[in-house]
Write a structure and sequence with these properties.
About 80% of the residues lie in helices and about 0% in strands. By secondary structure, it is mostly helical. The longest helix is centred in the last third of the chain and has 30 residues.
Length: about 100
Amino acid sequence: MTDTLIAIISIFMGIIGAHVFALISKKHTLGLIGNTMAGVFGSIFFLKTFGRLGFDPMSIMETGETNRVLFTINILVSLVGGTIGVMAIKLIKNKLNS
C-alpha cells in the first residue's frame, strides 16, 4: 500500500462514518451531499490534528510494509472524525437558523 492509498481509504472511511451516524441518528442527517462533505472534512481535520501522534500515512508505511496497528487506529480516527464532523456541522447549522 502507498501513502496516497492510505489517505484515500481514510477519507472514504470518514464518509462511511458520517453516513452510518446519520442513519443511526435521524435528527443529525444533512442529506447525502452534506453527510459526504462533513465526512470528508471531519476525517481530514481529525487525521491532520491527531495524526501527529504517529498514525499518519507516512508513519504507517515507514518500514516499507503496512503497520496494521497504526492503520487500524487511522481508520478508527477517520470514522470518529466523520461522525463528529456531522454533529459539528449540524450544531452550527442549528445555531445559524435560530
